[in-house]
Amino acid sequence: GKGINTVIGRGSVSEGRFRVETGVRVDGVLKGELVSSGTLIVGESGVIEADVKVNDALVSGRIVGTLEAEEKVHLQARAAFVGRIKTRTLIVEEGAIFKAECDARGEIQVTEAGSEELARELADQQSG
Predict the structure, then answer these.
(1) pLDDT tens digits for 109-128?
(2) Closest to 60 in 3D by CA, of 38, 77, 85, 39
């Protein structure tokens, strides 16, 4: 399957070129290059300083470098990203640090407090 079979645990530092067929979870530090046909999960304690190519990414930790995701990148509220992102869909939650050059071929969603109310107000203004 497409589950997570590679984990870089908290307190670990891994450097080099990594090629992984399924998913990867990083709770430690990864430096270098990572290529995976699966999902990348970066836990809150995870730090990646690398060029990364994956199918999709769920980030709660920190990434500095280039992130290319075939489907989706989701930066959760505690995430920090500095670098370049290329993906089909990008989701950035309120509180995430995002300093990047971005190529989102599909859609970009930025979630923030009150955004649903603001969307409803804008829709009401346009229809009325």
Answers:
(1) 666 654 555 555 555 555 55
(2) 77
